[in-house]
């Protein structure tokens, strides 16, 4: 059980760092935030992959590495769009 949790933490950290490196701009996020971004991106990538595969049942599962990075990028862009300040 401990090995599984540590694996998710390391995987989330790597995926989160890659997503933050790919998306331009400043993302003021801590290391635990980066880990959560990577883990959440994995589940978003799995959901989107499931929808693209044509499955009718909405199953939430973890995606592979590429799907996880794409899901984390999507989450990061949405987060940046939702929290950006308007200059008026």
UniProtKB/TrEMBL annotation:
The chain crosses the membrane at residues 6-23, 35-54, 60-82. It is found in: Cell membrane. One of its GO terms (cellular component) is plasma membrane. It is a multi-pass membrane protein. Keywords: Cell membrane, Membrane, Transmembrane, Transmembrane helix. It holds the Pfam family Transgly_assoc. Belongs to the UPF0410 family. This is Transglycosylase associated protein. It comes from Sandaracinus amylolyticus.
